[in-house]
Design goal:
2 copies of one chain form a homodimer. By secondary structure, chain A is of the alpha/beta class. Chain A has 15 helices and 18 strands. In chain A, strand 12, helix 8 and strand 13 form a beta-alpha-beta unit.
């Protein structure tokens, strides 16, 4: 779509010109055409007045399980193992593809209205997640969380790749999802690695989330999870490793050497009492650290603005360092670093000419945003997903003036209640 | 006002009947008349349909500096000492009473729209804070943050007591505000204690917020702050002690023995890299621990829902215990415990017959609240101040259907921008 956004304050996330005031941003088709002076000859299909608003790159949620919105607020104040074994896995045992479709649509709507324009998912019935993503217009990197996959499941992954990788105008891609070391034996991990090599895609994996996961891996494999999968050749610059809470010094070195992408999920890691990643330390050592919400069953929302504030505050409070994960750093984690993790550096994560038109417009005209002051601080410390006014993905306006376009939110709410009642009550 | 709230799910915060579904709540004048079956003879001036909403006690913010909204998002990613010395104190040096009035009105509006119905403040030009509180209808406990007060200032406190204590239908009370050990000498602390004894009110004080505060107190007084002020007789069950981040074992015992009220301010303590209170441990030991946002210059909002989620998550993540500060506990901190701290146990903090009608109505009919499930978990982990639909204080409806009643929000935003530009730019 051809869009002219005028009177805009633009947070580009580009170090050369981080903030541009009172400017214009033009979208042509699915790309950013120009940021700056008014283009006299541009024919806009839509004009958006961004006065008292801030335009910034859409947020990239690098680790989630979106269909788990069907279990939101189920199983609280329990640890990871109990949560999985006593709540989530039993409830999931009766989950249908239709449930996954509905849970995905609920979460995609929640992400769009709170400023997330790309997500990296791990779940199953991924065809349904792909269909929901295609239909609702979001950008998605989809991975099946494989646990000792059969030959049929591996073949299904090849089919998923053929059906979906690069589809929906390039909005949908796939990676190989290896659930974890604790749910895969060595042979399965090797098969998953081989599949990733064959398809030339990265691997998305849970690594070193809890202390007990590390202890069990050492018991079973004589190595902690990250070090163990490295011996299997699973780590490279395409790898997305979620959590990385409990890493040995050697594992930190390996993560840096292999240039893997690490996803910090502070809310979920804290809620399940796993701990949290030493993100600033990893960034200082040269790692690409991005940000994720994990699923909304362990968060219990998918709001990347909440996640940025949490990440920044816990780091300062835990390490007694007020500059730890400062506002600019967490904004980068949620944009630039996320784009790099999914192999879209130079295309996503910044607002620049030629980049994909994934952007959000934040309302600063409210009591939480006065006085108008430090924009990056305001985005991290005073902004919530509710402040998102408009969301544009791949040049399409999906959410405008706090309203979804073409989404039956009432129906989704009803459907997800029905699923929960059937599966849990 | 006589109000009938129907079709309500009521979170009473009373352990006997914590949650009542599909019920009625009646307000007569400024008190709760009845919760339960429909009253046939009640003549309602206002009927509120709370279908798909949750009615709960208004939140009590036990430590803040509301006028500091004029410095929101000023001085970020720096520690407490730098923040005060390089940013806040210089900017405050030119603050006028009118600035405090406007900053207070901005914050009161922000609190009302995000579900806070009572706040405990510490600042100066407290006449202006009182006037703003009276005008806007909120409940307030006001304290001047005294730093080596002159005789005139102490006399001014007596005058403030006479003018404001118990006024505005009992909505406004005062306590003696002793800023801290690091801003008062021993003689001043004694004068402040004597004033509190004379007026028969409690003392509101910052205690043991940062490590350097503790070190300096030990250097100056041979005792850490809490232990030092205890030797001066400043601690009793009316005392409200903010922060209490760095307490020795002996100080923890003293806090319990004296039955002081302790305020956990997780966002501000983390943002300024002070650390955070071991709240669950203190609660287990018998302390009354309540919750506060601190000022919006170090948070950077006044949203008690954010504060509850933060408190719960950091406790679980830091102490690797998923039951640490569970949903029910933090809800109590923000309601029942806050009421106790300000001497309003039996009148505030729960929804019960005869209690003051300070209540909020939360919208659960949105994507972040489906499926409908565990209400207390949803309030802590999925709710934000933006979800507050209606706020009633002392029987008056101040905010309804997400709109302020009788507040010129546009003017306030303009005024606070002008102040910031004058003081800082």
């Amino acid at each position: 779509m051809n869009i002219w956004i005028k009177n805009a304050t633009v947070l580009t996330m580009d170090d050369k010109q981080m903030i541009l005031e009172n400017t214009n941003l033009y979208v042509e088709g699915n790309r950013i055409l120009h940021i700056g002076e008014e283009l006299r000859d541009f024919v806009a299909e839509k004009v958006i007045d961004a006065n008292k608003k801030v335009v910034m790159p859409g947020l990239i949620n690098c680790h989630t399980h979106i269909a788990m919105s069907v279990f939101r607020n189920y199983g609280n104040d329990v640890g990871l193992e109990t949560w999985l074994q006593d709540y989530i896995w039993p409830a999931e045992s009766n989950l249908t593809p239709e449930d996954v479709r509905i849970g995905s649509e609920v979460s995609i709507a929640e992400m769009i209205e709170s400023g997330t324009t790309t997500f990296v998912d791990m779940y199953y019935y991924m065809d349904e997640v792909a269909k929901a993503s295609e239909k609702m217009g979001i950008r998605a990197v989809l991975t099946r969380g494989m646990t000792n996959p059969t030959k049929e499941i591996l073949e299904g992954e090849r089919e998923f790749y053929r059906n979906w990788h690069g589809k929906a105008n390039g909005r949908i891609e796939m990676m190989v999802g290896s659930h974890s070391v604790y749910t895969n034996n060595k042979e399965s991990l090797i098969k998953e690695r081989d599949l990733a090599d064959e398809l030339k895609v990265g691997i998305h994996i849970h690594l070193n989330e809890s202390q007990s996961e590390v202890e069990n891996s050492i018991k079973d494999h004589k190595l902690a999870p990250l070090e163990f999968v490295d011996t299997l050749g699973m780590l490279n610059k395409k790898t997305i490793a979620a959590h990385c809470v409990w890493l040995s010094d050697r594992e930190k070195e390996i993560a840096i050497e292999r240039q893997i992408n690490m996803v910090h999920n502070p809310a979920s890691n804290m809620k399940l009492a796993s701990g949290f990643m030493e993100a600033q330390k990893m960034i200082n050592a040269g790692a690409n650290v991005c940000l994720g919400t994990d699923g909304s069953a362990s968060n219990n929302v998918l709001d990347m603005f909440e996640e940025m504030k949490l990440a920044s505050l816990i780091a300062k409070g835990r390490y007694l360092d007020p500059q730890n994960l400062d506002a600019k750093t967490v904004l980068k984690m949620a944009t630039v670093n996320g784009a790099k993790a999914i192999g879209k550096e130079g295309q996503l994560g910044k607002l620049k000419e030629g980049y994909l038109a994934d952007l959000i417009i934040i309302d600063f005209d409210n009591l939480r945003h006065v006085p108008n002051n430090d924009i990056m601080a305001a985005l991290v410390y005073s902004t919530n997903g509710f402040d998102v006014n408009t969301t544009i993905i791949d040049g399409n306006v999906l959410y405008e003036n706090n309203e979804h376009i073409g989404v039956d939110v009432e129906l989704l709410k009803e459907e997800v209640n029905n699923i929960f009642n059937r599966l849990v009550r």
